[in-house]
Amino acid sequence: MSSKITPNTVSSLKKVRVGVLGATGTVGQRFITLLSEHPWFIIEALGASERSKGKKYREAVKWKQTIPLGGLAADLIVKGCTPEEFKTCQLVFSGLDADVAGDIEYAFRAANIPLFSNAKNYRRDPHVPLIVPLVNPSHFSIIPQQQSLHSPPLSKGFIVTNANCSTTGYVIPLAALEKAFGPIESVLVTTMQAISGAGYPGVPSLDILGNVVPYIGGEEEKIEWETLKILGGITDSENETDKNGAPLKTFDMHQAGGRPALRVSASCNRVPVVDGHMECVSLRFHRRPPPSPQQVREALSVFTPEIQSLGCPSSPRKAIEVFEEPDRPQPRLDVKGTHNGAGVSVGRVRQCQVLDIKFVVLSDNVSIGAATSSIINAEYAVLKGIVS
Amino acid sequence: MSSKITPNTVSSLKKVRVGVLGATGTVGQRFITLLSEHPWFIIEALGASERSKGKKYREAVKWKQTIPLGGLAADLIVKGCTPEEFKTCQLVFSGLDADVAGDIEYAFRAANIPLFSNAKNYRRDPHVPLIVPLVNPSHFSIIPQQQSLHSPPLSKGFIVTNANCSTTGYVIPLAALEKAFGPIESVLVTTMQAISGAGYPGVPSLDILGNVVPYIGGEEEKIEWETLKILGGITDSENETDKNGAPLKTFDMHQAGGRPALRVSASCNRVPVVDGHMECVSLRFHRRPPPSPQQVREALSVFTPEIQSLGCPSSPRKAIEVFEEPDRPQPRLDVKGTHNGAGVSVGRVRQCQVLDIKFVVLSDNVSIGAATSSIINAEYAVLKGIVS
Amino acid sequence: MSSKITPNTVSSLKKVRVGVLGATGTVGQRFITLLSEHPWFIIEALGASERSKGKKYREAVKWKQTIPLGGLAADLIVKGCTPEEFKTCQLVFSGLDADVAGDIEYAFRAANIPLFSNAKNYRRDPHVPLIVPLVNPSHFSIIPQQQSLHSPPLSKGFIVTNANCSTTGYVIPLAALEKAFGPIESVLVTTMQAISGAGYPGVPSLDILGNVVPYIGGEEEKIEWETLKILGGITDSENETDKNGAPLKTFDMHQAGGRPALRVSASCNRVPVVDGHMECVSLRFHRRPPPSPQQVREALSVFTPEIQSLGCPSSPRKAIEVFEEPDRPQPRLDVKGTHNGAGVSVGRVRQCQVLDIKFVVLSDNVSIGAATSSIINAEYAVLKGIVS
Amino acid sequence: MSSKITPNTVSSLKKVRVGVLGATGTVGQRFITLLSEHPWFIIEALGASERSKGKKYREAVKWKQTIPLGGLAADLIVKGCTPEEFKTCQLVFSGLDADVAGDIEYAFRAANIPLFSNAKNYRRDPHVPLIVPLVNPSHFSIIPQQQSLHSPPLSKGFIVTNANCSTTGYVIPLAALEKAFGPIESVLVTTMQAISGAGYPGVPSLDILGNVVPYIGGEEEKIEWETLKILGGITDSENETDKNGAPLKTFDMHQAGGRPALRVSASCNRVPVVDGHMECVSLRFHRRPPPSPQQVREALSVFTPEIQSLGCPSSPRKAIEVFEEPDRPQPRLDVKGTHNGAGVSVGRVRQCQVLDIKFVVLSDNVSIGAATSSIINAEYAVLKGIVS
């Protein structure tokens, strides 16, 4: 990987031209809102389905953000989602729906375009990193292997995914605690997830008004699986080798290599909240005796992920805001927190009578849980020279 | 205790005259709604605060039930909460607020009036049983001791409490599982509780509309503590004796006697739901290997508490309704279930990656979670001859 | 029309076999819930789309009612929506979506099957009555003309529609007031409509949670137009004649005949309420001086529609419940009222500074606003011998 | 009144020291949020009840704003609400509750402190102006009379009130239309008001979750009365004279003087929305023929109140934002609009079948509907030299 580029270097360079796929959807709208004020990234192209293609973006979109649509993007002509139409982009963000993301994202990578995807399709791919930017940007190290295994090998194109919104929110304090106190042995997480996590039209109002739905299809499996990929290291594969016979790198899902096994049990609920996933977490450390609630509070509060020290412009001012008040955080008051939705808020850190420690974590599922993560991942890649 | 009275005996007797304390409050209104259609109990007297005393009930109350106020109770003159004014009642229900319940309930017992209380004040009293009628009516056996220890000893008066609404809901499936598979070792429960659980005016709308509050004062401690008292047996005290030197009976909170220790960890949340507490439960059995999800489903479904076989008229047709649909139960659709709010609904029974089994349980916090439990307790006491 | 059949006559006859079209949809589910307990009507056949055809109803439907699905209907095999499959039905209810109702309902009538439709397709047809059963069942008198104009003329088939839910609710007090005080000159109505009025999936939760949407497509036009058809009489057409040269009967939309002109202005809003349309009504009478608020209250309270005196089994115990409390009716507490959703509730009757009188009216949009109206219309037709 | 001071003059002067009464309440918190970023006003003193007195503000307040409490105000020691403790303030804002505002505000005026009040107590006072800053700042002209009638006459102290939140929102488009098309003859307004309008704890959640309450105590009278005072001019009193025998100025409530009579009819509802009052307005002009909807749209869109041209720093960028989309504005998406809550949003301008024109207006009840209005009024007074 190339030598480090400082933020100053970047801002003195000419701007980075980016594209957005799935631009009219919920996540796409969020990408555009965030990119409109980005110091480096300039929206060069917007892609959507055939129905929108050829229209001005402001006419193609049913804008559902509380911040009015403005800026240059509003008057861009929407393109189809083909690599040819995005040739001038240096990198592309994908807010595509899962039913189309697979083929389109593959084509973009094959066309040598770096792609930062919020879709779930490649999250389980053994050569695609699943990166929560406040946790495991080190997993970018698998990119050269991803490129070399492609046929033909790629010089620039790759796919990086970010995690499911409910995984992202709670894995950040987990990472902070593992950094401070060593491996976690088991985690029980019960989520209360906002409706915006399901996109638009998403959850019918008759299902959720004054109600709780104790089920979100596939969500529990995603949390249980993604946590292992994100918190696991990268290790040598036991079976696979490259053409030179060297072992391939692989994600240490079963913790065969470095860390001891981690067990995760998730229960997911939908609640009538617009934005903000609340998660009640109980966990047990390997280390005996476990840290005290006060030690946990301090470790969370001082956690400083690499993207902050590196100077990614979209990184939160504070990665984890720790509340002392007994009834906070709450979605309506705290979803943006002091971190503008790019970090998470933790409260109610206390002893668990069954495992060691329990707390609640609140994350902004449409910011750090979605588009903001893709954007920080891209900032990291630019600063590290992975995208040029 | 007297010989068993059958339902037939009861219905051939003259009706049972009952009183309601705290009649204008939320729980009081619920008592009156339920008692208005009761086959045995006749509302004889209603008690409330000075502000309401002397008014017709229909004028004193701000009626907040979806069932219109009607029947004989509407025209009763509200009395003060003194035993003298309830002399003609054979038993009294208390929906009093905790800030006044202590003294008033004490006075009623001292006046030899059997009292079934929904208030929390005497739940922790070592001689007062805390009875979830679908779980531990056997704890009525402590009543003679409660009466004999009173000074002077009581011939008829006693206090029986029912449990906190969130405890009641989840302890019913726990009891069913212990009956089928032996002791549970540990339980983690995360609640999503309805606003009606906080009474009226209760939760300010600015706190809960489109929001989740991850805290309910004292609630987690109540669940953790009450579960031990309810699921524990009654054993001989190690220290206390009666005047004859015989050991007093005491609740086996620490499971020193019969059952192995049980650890409970609760996380309580308020959600914008009107009626119906949802609780996500994970638990571990002592028994190895643990039962399968299918065995758990069957054990829950066949659970028949004593109050059902005894024929208490307010007992649910089915104690535990087990849902197979992946997204049920839900408060809005299922809070009344097939049990009319007097039982509970369980769904999503599946393996837990950390403990053994997880599921959700939904209970009607204003029915089985409050007034209905008091009423079934009273029915049980009448059928067993504890009240005459 | 044939001689009157009394309720006693009906109940001594064999039951009436009925079918339901659109059985899996929201309105269809409501039809089935109501018909399952109906004293006369026996569900003989259920029709739905190709996707459901051939399945047992309980497997075809995603049941969304708070009353559990039970009874005979649950095990019926769903049919396609063709008249051949409903030959044995004496009458059919339609809860079809508007995009398919036009052709299917036409075919049923052509096959000589009486059809009671909740769909909007034939509401504006000049020979199809638009009947709010508590207001204008006299419009059934147009049925013979509808049958005779069909080619070939029909002996039994016809189409009767009921009105849009928001029209139905507020037109009932209007009719009561016109009956008591003569014609109304102008009405301003502002609605706050429940989400269940939009069916399922209907309103996306992101659009309505904690929000008000000041627009419901086509709704204001429906209210303004339907009110004229319902409250207008039936008069001789000026232009159209039958084959004998006699003038055709027509709906007096422009009040050219009997009554003075009525002007209606509607403003429609969607609010986050599950069931129950609230409508704020201001109106001006022709008569000077206008009646006082107290006179209005009394006139509303004593209103007894023909369907009540005739003895339709689904008619409300009270057509209009008048509240004296300043803050009632409210959807959550009063949607069922004392009329079980088959009547309406009126409150806050007071003077209007601009027109004469203002009040609020609450109606159960899924009962009297939809299926219940179709069913009462059918009961009326049976009692009057229009269906045999 | 003194010669005009330009914004430049002001900003070159030393800052204006202000106080806030009722600082811990909902409106008080809003004052502090807005003043913390104000270019001129420096918070010098905070006053609250005895319970809070002597504590640091951050400890006395239960902060309920989505913007975190920060800045200098957080560490101020809360004072009692006596003029002595606010001596160093050049003007004071009052967010006091009505039950205490009467005496306290009187005392502040008597102590020669200019007071800008959000409370209702002095709104009907014949010498106190009721000023919606986008509508009638010209009513400041009554201040010298208010000061001279005080005993003893005041050199600096006065009381200015702003209007009720629901009046403020809809009177702004009314003023714009009267400016363009002459007097309005009659207005019917139906409100759907947010819970934040009732303060904290305010509306109990059991009353409003999934519900509409068709009543807000005193609100309809306020709208009907305040509109007349705000839109009326100032005229000579027929009866009252000053000590020199010159007629006193009075508010032209009955339009005896200049303008023709205006009739207002209001119907007020509470809906489950956090922030943003929606109001459905129908009105009739005196002028015949009335303007077309398109003319109305244009007149609203170009409306520029004096406070904008004068340069009040808190004035909205656009006073009235006019939406063309059929389903906007909506509280959740548009409450802040392009005017940051200091203007209003209008949509659905169309013909009314009964009066002339109808439309919806959305206003941010906690901004322009409350604290923001007081602050703009104070800015106006500073710029005009009324406060020095």
Automatic annotation (TrEMBL), chains A, B, C, D:
Top EC class of this enzyme: oxidoreductase
Query: Keyword NADP: yes or no?
Result: yes
Provide the Semialdehyde dehydrogenase NAD-binding domain boundaries. Answer: 17-143
Query: What pathway annotation does it carry?
Result: Amino-acid biosynthesis; L-threonine biosynthesis; L-threonine from L-aspartate: step 2/5; Amino-acid biosynthesis; L-methionine biosynthesis via de novo pathway; L-homoserine from L-aspartate: step 2/3
- Annotated SUPFAM superfamilies: Glyceraldehyde-3-phosphate dehydrogenase-like, C-terminal domain, NAD(P)-binding Rossmann-fold domains
Query: Which EC number(s) are documented for this chain?
Result: 1.2.1.11
Catalytic activity, reaction form:
L-aspartate 4-semialdehyde + phosphate + NADP(+) = 4-phospho-L-aspartate + NADPH + H(+)
List the Pfam families hit by this protein, alphabetically: Semialdhyde_dh, Semialdhyde_dhC
Q: Which InterPro entries match?
A: ASADH-related, Asp_semi-ald_DH_pep-lack, NAD(P)-bd_dom_sf, Semialdehyde_DH_NAD-bd, Semialdhyde_DH_dimer_dom
- Keywords, in A-Z order: Amino-acid biosynthesis, NADP, Oxidoreductase, Threonine biosynthesis
Family, per entry: Belongs to the aspartate-semialdehyde dehydrogenase family.
NCBIfam families registered for this protein in UniProt: asd_EA (TIGR00978), PRK08664.1 (NF006416)
- What does this protein do, in the record's words? Catalyzes the NADPH-dependent formation of L-aspartate 4-semialdehyde (L-ASA) by the reductive dephosphorylation of 4-phospho-L-aspartate. Mediates the second step in the biosynthesis of amino acids that derive from aspartate (the aspartate family of amino acids), including methioinine and threonine, the latter of which is a precursor to isoleucine.
Protein name (Swiss-Prot/TrEMBL): Aspartate-semialdehyde dehydrogenase
Species, as recorded: Lentinula lateritia
